[in-house]
Amino acid sequence: MKFNRILLKLSGEALMGDQEYGIDPVKIKEYAKDIKDVVDAGVEVAIVIGGGNIFRGVAGAATGMDRVQGDYMGMLATVINGLALQAALEEEDVDTRLQTAIEMNKVAEPFIRRRAMRHLEKGRVVIFSAGTGNPYFTTDTGATLRAIEIDADVILKGTRVDGIYTADPEKDKTATKFDEITFKEVYDKGLNVMDMTAFTLSQENELPILVFDMNTRGNLMKVVKGEAVGTLVKN
Q1: Which of 2, 71, 226, 229 would be 57's cystine partner, CB 3.0–4.6 Å?
Q2: Is the pLDDT score of 81 beyond 80?
Q3: From 46-50, 64-68, 152-156, the region with the lowest mean pLDDT
Q4: Predicted confidence band of residue 121 (pLDDT cuts 50, 70, 90)
C-alpha cells in the first residue's frame, strides 16, 4: 500500500446522492463498502464529513442569521452525518468510533488525540465530527488539522470530479486535468481545491492532498494502492 494511514474528507453534499437534501441510504452504503475494503486491506482510516446536506453556516449568515450560531448548527449537522456513516460502517462489520470536537457524551466520544490514534492502531475507523469546534473554520480546515494531529500520510478529498482541472470540467469542456501539481502552482493558477486556511495548513506541514472521484466504486482502494487516480497536490 502507498498509504498506511489516511484522512478521508467527504462533503456533506456527497451523502445526498440524487436527493436534494439529507442522506441517501444507497450512497452511504456504497461509501461504507469502499471504506470497508481498504480497512480489510490493513489501511488505517480516519474520516471527516461536512454538513452541507443538512445545514451550512455560511448560507445561514447570508440570510441574516448570526454567523457564529449558524456555524454551530453546521457543526451539529456533521455529527448527524457522522452518526449515519458510523451506522452504515457497522452494518458492514467495521468497528467504528465517532469523536466530536463539541462534547456530547451520550452520542460520541470527545476528541482526544491519543485515544483516536489508539483506535486507528487497533484497526478501528475514526470519524471526526463537529469540525474544529470553533466557528469561522470549515470542515476542510477541521480535516487538515485532524490529519496533522494523527500523523496521516495524506488527505484524500473525495469529490464528484476525478481530480483538479484547469477549470470547472462540468462547465468548461476544454478543461484539462492535472495528474500532479504543487501547492504553489495551485496558488498561482487560482485553482479551488480547499479553503485557503486548510490549504495553507497542509502546505506548511507538508501534508499532501489527493483529490479523486469517490463516487466511482473501487476508486478509494486504487488511491491507497498508489494507482494513477485523481490529482496529487504536494510541495
Answers
A1: 71
A2: yes
A3: 64-68
A4: very high
CA distance 229 to 59: 32
Question: Residue 156 — φ and ψ, nearest 5°?
Answer: -100, 110
* Contact present, 230 and 175 (Cβ < 8 Å): no
What element of type H or E holds 49?
strand 44-49
Read off the pLDDT of residues 148-189 as tens digits, 9 standing for 90 and up: 999 999 999 999 889 999 988 888 889 999 999 999 999 999
Contact 235, 183 (CB under 8 A): yes
CA dihedral for 123, 11, 17, 186, sign (positive or negative)? negative
Beta bridge partners of 177: 165
Cβ atoms < 10 Å from Cβ of 74: 25
Give me 179's grid cell.
495528474
Cell of 207: 501534508
Instruction: For residue 166, give the C-alpha cell.
Output: 484547469
Instruction: State the Cα–Cα distance between residues 96 and 219, nearest whole angstrom.
Output: 21
Any residues with CB less than 8 A from the CB of 150 and at least 6 apart, and which? 5, 7, 46, 113, 116, 117, 120, 126
All cell numbers assigned to 84: 449515519
Nearest to 30 by CA among 83, 92, 74, 79: 92
3-class state of residue 129 by DSSP: strand
pLDDT of residue 86: 98
pLDDT-wise least confident of 26-40, 50-64, 139-153, 180-194: 50-64
Furthest-apart CA pair in the chain: how many Å? 51
Would you identify the CATH topology of the domain 5-234?
Carbamate kinase (3.40.1160)
